[in-house]
Amino acid sequence: MPEPNPDLATPEPPAPHLLAAAHPAEPPAAPLLAAISEPANPAGWIAGLRDEPAVLGLVLSGSQAHAGMPTPHSDHDLHVITADEAPAWLTALDGFRSPHLDLVVMPLAAFRRRALPGDEYGWARYAYVHARLLFDRLGGTIGELLDRKRTLSPAEARRHADGHLDAYLNQTYRSLKSHRDGRPELAHLDAAESLPFLLESLFALHRRVRPYNKYLEWELSRHPLGAPTWQAGTLLPRLRRILATGEPAAQRALFADVERLARARGHGEILDSWGTDLLLLRPPSRPDRESP
User: Fold this and answer.
1) Rounded CA separation 279/87 (Å)
2) Smallest Cα–Cα separation from 138: which of 45, 37, 215, 54?
3) Residue range 146-205, pLDDT digits in tens
4) Count of C-beta atoms within a 10 Å radius of residue 227
5) Contact 79, 104 (CB under 8 A)
6) Contact by Cβ (8 Å): 271, 278
7) Which residues are bridge partners to 60 per DSSP?
8) Strand pairing class (101-107; 55-61)
9) Are 270 and 162 in contact, with CB atoms under 8 Å apart?
């Protein structure tokens, strides 16, 4: 093997352990590693990655893709989509983390299914909802695959809304039943646990992906769900009240709005499967089911 060119050597590479698996015949691209070792140099990272023929696409996610959200502590979350037979030194960069850069490296085959139903990274789908496409060597294919992840298909939305609506009903019912039976502390815990299910179903009822909590106010403010009931200034105080107190009246008032929305969107079957148990969830002023 030829001696390495000292002019290309990268002093103190950013993450030597990530390159340990590289094949001896595939020396890492020192200029690229030098670029990603430099803080506050996004243009250098992107240019270096674009110059690597095995890189097919670049996608920016996280705070840097949400206007108004970055802080001085925010890094750049960069997803690198490679050819399925990429060099080992490049695939070994998957998981590289520094105070300024977080790399996710995956082959095209993995990106096709990434965060979609059945994928082990389904929990990460919101990362792609507002992600920015920085580079697409395939003339639009990467962009099309990214757009597929941004919203729920009608079938996905129905399944997701049904399952999480049922879970929200179950958790709220448990909370109100414990209140009725004189267990307010346990009821409060169930009330808090109901809210993730509520948010999953609420966004799915609009064919939307639930945002990470960090972006909930941003999402509701910049991309409203529609009705004033679900706008940030209305919904967030209601959620905070339930989290803080577990108050039965607050839970019932919120459920009344959820029931109206779910029936209007065609999910009445899930609600009706609860039979007379719904009476415990409804405000006292509306004991009977209302039409949407």
Assistant:
1) 61
2) 54
3) 999 999 999 999 999 999 999 999 999 999 999 999 999 999 999 999 999 999 999 999
4) 13
5) yes
6) yes
7) 78, 132
8) unpaired
9) yes
The answer to whether 136 and 142 are in contact (CB under 8 A) is: yes
Token pair in block for residue 157: 């939305």
Alpha carbon distance 202, 147 (integer Å): 21
Q: What token pair was written down for 97?
A: 């983390």
Task: Report the predicted TM-score, pTM, of the whole model to 2 decimal places.
Answer: 0.84
Residue type, 246: G
How do residues 233-255 score in pLDDT, each as one tens digit? 999 999 999 999 999 999 999 99
The owner of tokens 């340990």 is: 20
The amino acid occupying position 30 is A
Task: Annotate 218-232 with DSSP letters as a single string.
Answer: HHHHHS--SSGGGSH
Partner residues linked to 102 by β-bridges: 77, 97
- DSSP string for 164-178: HHHHHHHHHHHHHHH
DSSP string, 93-152: TTT-B-SSEEEEEEEHHHHHHTTSTT-TTGGGGGGGTS-EEEEETTTTHHHHHHHHHHS-
